[in-house]
Amino acid sequence: MTGLSAELVVDGREPRTPALTPNGRLLCYVLAPTSRTGDHLDTELWLVHTDGAVESRRATADTATESLPRWSADSETLFFLSDSADRGTPQLHGLTLADGTTTTLTGWSVGVIDHLPLIDPNLIALLAEDEPTEQDARRARDRDDAIVVGEGEQRARLRLLDLRTGRVATPQVFGDRHVVEMRQRPDGGPLAVLTWASADNDCGPRTGRLHLFDPGTGDAEDLGPVEVDARSLTWWPGEDGWHLGYLALTPPVLQAGTAVFDLAVRSRVLRNRTAGLSMCPTALCQTDAAPLVVFADGLNTTVARLERTELTNLSHHPGRLDNPTTTPAGDTIAALTGTRYHTPNVHIGPPTGPLRRVTNTRPELDGIALGTQQPLAYRAADGLDLDGLLVLPVGRTASEGPFPLVTIVHGGPYDRYADRCQLFWFPSAQWLAAAGYAVLLPNPRGGQGHGHQFAASVAGQVGRQEWTDILTGIDLLIAEGIADPDRLGIAGWSHGGFMSAWAVGQTDRFRAAVVGAGIVDWGMLAATGENGQFEAALGGSTGWSGIGPHPHDAVSPISFASHIRTPVLIAHGAADTNVPLGQAVYLHRALRHFDVEHEFVIYPREGHSIRERNHQLDLLRRTRAWFDRWLRPEETTPPSGHTSPAVPTSSPADLPAYETSLRGRVGRAGPVSPR
Length: 675
Hints:
The protein is an alpha+beta fold. Helix content is 14%, strand content 32%.
């Protein structure tokens, strides 16, 4: 067995967004590097024959960012986005299987955001922002570029590409609303179109409306408002006519509890089809009949069919199923999934299971020794059933404890640890297990996989019961002789970073902590983060809620900074708009004021996720060295150059990056975006 290195973690390639042909015979997926070395992420499209008779092959030979593979209704043409001609500006391309030729289909100057091949073989729906006008060009030349918030905001609009003429038309529908998503009715009827009042992430998800658009006549119909953060539009036929489904947050809580909503188009009756379930829906897959629903189910995943009157469970899978796709007949699905010791690959099979692996994108990990991973089930102090994972040091058994224990809290908080391979660019269990640590991965209340009430219980109460849930797991491992009570560490990214900062303000039990892109002041985050209203729901109030003290002050780690004695490593991206850099600056200044041992590292050009290869390498090595320094001082010496407090590794020009524009989708789950 070979040891795990930081290079092995970040230098791999991972599959993304598989897409099945309607006839189920072929599958396309995106192959993307785990880290980026230049200004652009070079990705590839690969084709897989689902019967395994022909070896997988690359679809194109371009050096480009290729994404969003979608098939024509006849399964003969693959449409996708690529910036091969102008890096950073994706255009629609078409690959004809019969002769293997690839054609560039658009030349939209600002690029194409999304596309949807329609049942009509001559039409493709596009999402794209408006091209610059002559006045825009003149203002750019004159540097007359003052930004007036709310004026001239770029919004995605629905456009139609006619493949016969190459012309792109923009129907004058939906007013000035920002188009987010579209889905055609399976019989070739109208498009369901989801729009926001603004592209701003803070208000857009709360202003969603559904529309119908007929691509043949150009007629549009407004179906009214949708629940907050609606997505994953799906059609299906019912006895009372067509139904439209979508995923959205269960009202009235803004931050958690995703449900499947079912809108009867003719009567406009809306129902929550997953109310009361102990699972959480993560994806809807359209078929020609009843749609499929993927559920986070504790540490694992359930696939079900949304029948007219009930949900029918079809199969149960270990870990996660991400990016599911299905044939129109609903007889075949493909998704990204893995095992405890294998990273995700494309798997395919019937929705009733089992699924068969058809890719092996990280063979370099096959000979790497990993720590034993096992599920945990225990009860909180108030009797609530909880779960999580324990990863033991590589080559060790539980009976050989106690070990130094690092608890890594997941992001979200509406996320979860699933029973899959725990190896990522941010501090992860297998990375620490390779260095001799036991790692606890708890799923405290507020997370996904146990129903709406479990998730919504932390609204306005972050850091309260979820913190005691985590402590219960730690105390369990101490009582069982697995964890050394004198060598405890805690870490997390995003909401996990918040919990790490919260922990060291509540107790001195931890010898070391890592706060990655963490929240320290909920009022400031509601005021400056790109998801302000969601953060206000978590924190319980905003700074403009009167003189104060405010409810969010009582759950903000900064309020307890004077209590912190634990050495803290703070890591943050300079261009993070989800949790702006100011949060890390605030904690750094407080720790400096109270003379607390700490290190503050800023990664230039990085957002909420760290993407550049050298930064990922630094983060992995630095976090492990930090725990080695404080949890195993007899075995290590402090890395040279580590001082207390450390100066930021960025230039002063990077520090105001947290004041940049509010852009991007609300996204809180998965390893790519651990918030």
